[in-house]
Amino acid sequence: MKRVFIVHGWDGYPEEGWFPWLKRELEARGFEVHVPPLPDAGNPRIQNFLVLKSATYVALLRTSFLR
Questions:
Q1: How far apart are CA 62 and CA 52, in angstroms?
Q2: Cα–Cα distance for residue pair 32/57, rounded to 1 Å
Q3: Domain of life here (predicted)?
Q4: Residue 17 has what pLDDT?
């Protein structure tokens, strides 16, 4: 089964806007969908950030989340 991660932005949350609709639509098409809440979305702290460039994030996802 293919997985989809929908990540909200600054001051966002998983139940806002079009996230629930997109989650339902993708699940109806057979996807496993995750819309995780991010900590302190209204007041993010730079020390909690992970910045990745290019294909690095793909490698991280493959080794971390997709196992």
A1: 14
A2: 19
A3: Bacteria
A4: 92
In three-state secondary structure terms, 4 is strand
Within 8 A by CB and 6+ apart from 33, the residues are: 3, 4, 5, 6, 22, 23, 26, 27
Q: Which amino acid does the sequence have at 21?
A: W
For the full predicted model, state whether its pTM sits above 0.90: no
Judge whether residue 66 has pLDDT over 70. no
Is 26:54 a contact under the CB 8 Å cutoff? Answer: no
List, as one string, the DSSP characters of 23-67. HHHHHHTT-EEE-PPPTTTTS--GGG-----TTHHHHHHHHHT--
β-pairing verdict for 3-5 and 32-34: parallel
